[in-house]
Amino acid sequence: VDLDTAKQELEEFVPHVRNISDSSIRKMAGRDLVRFKQFKKQGIAVKFGRFSQKENNQIRKNIEEFLLITGIDSAEKLLFTSRYPEDKESINRLKAEHLFCEKLSEGIPRPWRLIYYRARKMFDPNNYKGRYSKEEKEKLKKYHALHGNDWKKISELMSRSNLSVAMKYSEIKSAVNYGPWSKEETQKLMHAVEEVIRKRTEKEGANSLSSSEKSQRDISIDRETLYQKLPWTEIEAKVGTRYWRQCKQKWTTILTNKITKGQQLYRGTKGLQAKINLIKRLYEMKVEDANEVDWEELSNAVGDVPRAYVQAKFYKLKVSCVPSWQKKTFSEIIDYLFEEKLPELEEK
């Protein structure tokens, strides 16, 4: 199929197809067009957005069946073949012989590329490695000295995901204080946040205010600006003794205390009720990934607090209550909390 025809035919199923690169369109024409037409005959629409539990189960089934057919040892070898250079040639030959693309997407009305990315996320053991040991931190420093910011290369050497090694290096690249925050550090943090917010607010209002209005007005800031999309690496540099995630967590604590006027929202009976509400709301959302959760909406489940506060509470909840949580998908964690932990909390 030529490119123009492919665009026309795919547009019926993928409305935004004209915003996709030509090379991606050619791949979709080869991998997806026939499948999309078959789904149309069955009255099934092509889907985007979050994957359902049914679709996740279908991906697992497709992977398991392909492994049985080919004799490939594991899903990791199948989906991350480059990690096994000695087996790469034979695995790629088996994938071609047994039509891996068709088998992986069987029964799932989505573009193949999205199914493949979802499968890699589900079956990558490097997503669930836990804390870095001292030895790993030293290795990370050494690899960064050799390879710079080539996080793909470093992730392969460390057997960690790209994002994990990049974020961890940002934490350990310089001497950082891990103890309690001093008054001086807290003041530096507050001044740094104030400075970046003030600059941003002044810049946004620069075109709509006269010079006299600019000099006389008080800068009013909506609450969302206080804790969303702040340049944390810039703030980290201004504080000097803490890495960016520490700064973000401390700022969330400061905001929570100010917003709630120091009330203990997560203690005693209130704490139990907050956990109950949080689990129920997460279960009702039926999402497949933490990135799909509207944490802003969920903040009302705990109290009038910043979204980062709720995210931190959920993290503590899953770590303390869900056995082997690192090996579970997000939806499996929520199901466990709802079915096993919720009754216990309600009884308390």
TrEMBL record:
<feature type="domain" description="Myb-like">
    <location>
        <begin position="173"/>
        <end position="255"/>
    </location>
</feature>
<dbReference type="InterPro" id="IPR053078">
    <property type="entry name" value="TTF1-like"/>
</dbReference>
<dbReference type="InterPro" id="IPR009057">
    <property type="entry name" value="Homeodomain-like_sf"/>
</dbReference>
<dbReference type="GO" id="GO:0005730">
    <property type="term" value="C:nucleolus"/>
</dbReference>
<dbReference type="GO" id="GO:0003682">
    <property type="term" value="F:chromatin binding"/>
</dbReference>
<dbReference type="Pfam" id="PF13921">
    <property type="entry name" value="Myb_DNA-bind_6"/>
</dbReference>
<dbReference type="InterPro" id="IPR001005">
    <property type="entry name" value="SANT/Myb"/>
</dbReference>
<dbReference type="InterPro" id="IPR017930">
    <property type="entry name" value="Myb_dom"/>
</dbReference>
<feature type="domain" description="Myb-like">
    <location>
        <begin position="124"/>
        <end position="172"/>
    </location>
</feature>
<dbReference type="GO" id="GO:0006363">
    <property type="term" value="P:termination of RNA polymerase I transcription"/>
</dbReference>
<feature type="domain" description="HTH myb-type">
    <location>
        <begin position="124"/>
        <end position="161"/>
    </location>
</feature>
<protein>
    <submittedName>
        <fullName>TTF1 factor</fullName>
    </submittedName>
</protein>
